[in-house]
Amino acid sequence: MKKVVVIGGGTGNFVVLSGLKNYDLDLSAIVSMADDGGSTGVLRDELGVLPPGDVRQCLVALSHSSRLMRGLMNYRFENGGLGGHSFGNLLLSALEKVTGSFEKAVEEVGKILSIKGKVVPVTNNEVRLKMILKNGKTLEGEGEIYTSSEISKGFNTIYLEPFPTANPRAIDEIMNADLVVLGPGGLYTALIPNLLVEGLSKALRDTKAKKVLVLNLMNKKGQTNGFKASDYLKEIKRFVGKDIFDYIVVNEAEPARELIEMYAEEAELIEDDLVDDKRVIKAKLIENNKSEYSRSDVLAKHRALIRHDPEKLAEELKKIVDSL
């Protein structure tokens, strides 16, 4: 059985894992520990726990339990003192307190959800993501970086504080993988935070595994304005230390015009300029089903409506695995 390791943050990992779990693969998710927004941020600050949000999404993605149990893990309280918290975040944080270990908590929830695979925190250290902009302003935390509209004007540095070492299990997963998948996900909030952990980039350079970059569908305005496919590749290369990718998966489907218009204030489609790059695999990867969403939902909740289809993406990744 081929071993596939997926590296990223919550939503991107969710898409890749929920598609790949339907194949006979040994799956592992390595998850950023820089999340500090929403419910996760409150739990981190008030309880001193590691961030559960992105991990919860990976656990749900890999779960073979009932729809009810998956829904329970993602259920978000709307009122009272628990308003804004998801049940899954609370469960993971409570189990971390009971067991004294976030990794043990993840393992126990994995058993409850009958997950296929493993979910591994990239580090066991408590960290904060920070970015110093060209204008001297410091963005404190992933939440501030995610909502910033100034990053595209330039930044001096992005780093984790305190400087963390990689979880040995994460390094082992990478070194023993047949295929490592990076992306999709927010460049500065989901992907690069993993690469800032000491030891992870070296493992990506040293592993004999084939590496694939799943390119995002959209640029986030204020952060990656005007980025083309080659810009993502260059930026990741800067943090890894070399161009490590054997494959680059790029979407070639055109989203519905109404979705592009709805998205216009927040994002723009990424132009593929890797025309002569033999590593590029083009496929129609956009999710077609948009009937469940409304314009009010987009404006109110900023949901990512132009997104990868898990099954279509998994099909392309499985072709790569089968070629190894």
**Whole-angstrom Rg:** 19 Å
**CATH second-level architecture of the largest domain:** 3-Layer(aba) Sandwich
Helix-strand string:
EHEHHHHHEEEHEHEHHEEHEHEEHH
Proportion of residues in β-strands: 15-25%
CATH class term of the largest domain? Alpha Beta
Q: Kindly, what is the distance between the CA atoms of the first and last residues, rounded to a whole number of angstroms?
A: 12 Å
* Nearest-integer average pLDDT: 90
Q: Considering the protein shown, what is the CATH homologous superfamily of the largest domain?
A: CofD-like domains
Task: Please state the overall shape, judged from the principal axes of the Cα atoms.
Answer: globular
The overall number of domains is 2
Strands, total number: 12
Tally of individual helices: 14
Helix content: 40-55%
- The secondary structure category is alpha/beta
Strand order, largest beta sheet = 3-2-1-7-8-10-12
Largest sheet entry: 7 strands, parallel
Query: Unreliable runs, pLDDT <50, ≥5 residues?
Result: 290-303
